[in-house]
Specification:
Elements lengths: L1 E6 L4 E8 L4 E8 L9 H23 L8 E7 L3 H18 L3 E5 H12 L6 E5 L4 E7 L2 E7 L5 H11 L6 H9 L12 E2 L2 E2 L2 H12 L4 H27 L3 E5 L6 H13 L3 E3 L3 H4 L3 H13 L26
Parallel strand pairs: 1-4, 4-5, 6-11, 11-12
Antiparallel strand pairs: 1-2, 2-3, 6-7, 7-8, 9-10
Length: about 325
C-alpha cells in the first residue's frame, strides 16, 4: 500500500509518500519564514495553500509514482493552528475525492512517535517530543498514547526562537543558539521550572532576556539556556521511564536535532541501562512522511473516516486517539 501524507499544523507544509514497510519514498517540505515577528496563522495558511499542490507533484516525482498509484491520503488533523489545519484538510479532501481513495486524519503528536517506531529499532519507547509549539513526554499505556508530562506554557522550540528573535537573530533560532552555545563558558543562573511531571519555559525566557540587557554574552546565554532547559526535559523523561519501567527513549520534534539535548538524554539512558533512538533530522521536524506512515498504520488497524469526520481539531489531544493498530 502507498500513502501520501500532508502535514500542515504550523509553519511547515510537508508532503510525504510512504509504503507499507515504512520506506520513505519522498519527503518534501517548505517552511514559512516570517521576515520579522512570529508566525501569523493566516499568512502561514496562505503559504501552505500556495505550496501544497507543487509539493504534491514534487513528492510524486521524487517517489517516481503516478498519483493514481496512491491508496490512501492522510493529513494532520490537529493539534495546530486553525487556518493551517483547514488548508491542508481541504487539500487532502480534494485529493482523496479526485483519486477516489480513502482519507484519514492523523494526530500530529502520535505521528511523531509512530515514525520513530517505524524507522528506528524502538518498539515501545517513551517519546520526548520537543518542537516549536509542542513539548510533551508521551508513551503508550493501557491502550492509548498518553501524555506523562508537558509544557505548562510555551514549547521549548518556541522559547529558543523567541529568545533568538528578541536578540535580533533570524528564525529559526534553535540551530543558531546551538552553535553559539558551543563557545559558552559560564553557566548563568536561570529558573529551573519542573512542576511534578510538567515543565515551563516562559520564566526562563524572561530571565534570559533580562541577563542579555545586563550585558551577558550570547554564547553564555545560549549555553545556559540549553543546559537548564534540556536538564529539565531530561529529568521528566527519566521520571516517565522509571514510572513505566521502560528501557527505550525516542526523540522527536525539531529540537531533537540538537546535539547537546541528544547527549544529555543519551547519558541519562545509558546510566539507567536504556537505549536512545533519534530518527533522521528530516523525520524529526514536522513532515509529511510521518503523517503518511501513521495513516497507513491506522488503516491497517481498521480505522476509516467519512468526509464529515475529517473536521480539524486545533486542540486534538494525544490521548483522544483510539489506537487500534498496536
Ligand atoms: P518543529 O516544530 O518540530 O518543526 O521544529 C522546529 C523547531 O525546532 C524550531 O523551534 C527550531 O528552532 C527548532 N530546532 C531545529 N533545529 C534545532 C537545533 N539544532 N537545536 C535546537 N532547536 C532546533
Ligand atoms: Mg511537530
Amino acid at each position: 500500500m502507498l500513502a501520501i501524507g500532508i502535514e500542515g499544523t504550523a509553519h511547515t507544509v510537508g508532503l510525504g509518500i510512504v509504503d507499507g514497510a515504512c520506506h520513505v519514498l519522498a519527503n518534501v517540505y517548505d517552511m514559512v519564514k516570517p521576515e520579522k515577528g512570529g508566525i501569523h496563522p493566516r499568512e502561514a495558511a496562505n503559504h501552505h495553500a500556495e505550496m501544497v499542490v507543487p509539493l504534491i507533484r514534487k513528492a510524486a516525482d521524487i517517489a517516481g509514482i503516478d498519483l493514481q498509484d496512491l491508496d490512501l491520503v492522510a493529513f494532520s488533523q490537529g493539534p495546530g493552528l486553525g487556518p493551517c489545519l483547514r488548508t491542508v484538510a481541504t487539500a487532502a479532501r480534494a485529493l482523496a475525492l479526485s483519486l477516489d481513495i480513502p482519507i484519514l486524519g492523523v494526530n500530529h503528536c502520535v505521528a511523531h512517535l509512530e515514525i520513530g517506531r517505524g524507522v528506528t529499532e524502538a518498539k515501545d519507547p517513551v517519546l520526548l517530543y520537543v518542537s516549536g509549539g509542542n513539548t510533551q513526554v508521551i508513551a503508550f499505556a493501557r491502550g492509548r498514547y498518553r501524555v506523562f508530562g508537558e509544557t505548562l506554557d510555551i514549547g521549548v522550540g518556541n522559547m529558543l526562537d523567541k529568545f533568538a528573535r528578541e536578540c535580533g537573530l533570524p528564525f529559526p533560532g534553535g540551530p543558531i543558539l546551538e552553535k553559539l552555545a558551543r563557545d559558552g563558558k559560564r553557566l548563568l543562573s536561570l529558573p529551573y521550572s519542573v512542576k511534578g511531571m510538567d515543565v515551563a519555559f516562559s520564566g526562563m525566557l524572561t530571565a534570559a532576556l533580562a541577563l542579555q540587557k545586563q550585558g551577558a554574552t550570547m554564547e553564555d546565554l545560549a549555553f545556559s539556556i540549553q543546559e537548564v532547559a534540556f536538564a529539565m526535559l531530561t529529568e521528566v523523561t527519566e521520571r516517565a521511564m522509571a514510572h513505566l519501567d521502560n528501557e527505550e527513549v525516542l526523540l522527536g520534534g525539531g529540537v531533537a536535532r540538537n546535539g547537546r539535548l541528544q547527549e544529555m538524554v543519551a547519558r541519562m539512558a545509558t546510566d539507567r541501562g536504556a537505549r536512545m533512538f533519534v530518527p533522521p533530522g528530516d523525520l524529526c521536524i514536522d513532515n509529511g512522511a510521518m503523517i503518511a506512515w501513521t495513516g497507513l498504520q491506522m488503516h491497517r488497524g481498521g480505522v476509516r473516516m467519512k468526509l464529515a469526520e475529517t473536521l480539524v481539531d486545533q486542540r486534538y489531544r494525544t490521548d483522544e486517539v483510539p489506537v487500534t493498530w498496536r
